[in-house]
Amino acid sequence: MRIVLVGPPGAGKGTQAAFLAKNLGIPHISTGDLFRANISRQTELGKLAKSYMDKGDLVPDEVTIAMAKDRMEQPDAENGFLLDGFPRNVSQAEALDEMLSTEGMKLDAVLDLEVPEGEVVRRIAGRRICRNDSSHVFHVSYKAPKQEGVCDVCGGELYQRDDDSEETVRKRLEVYHTQTEPIIDYYKAQGLVVTILALGKVEEVTARAMEALSREGA
Question: pTM, whole model, 2 decimals?
Answer without folding.
Answer: 0.86
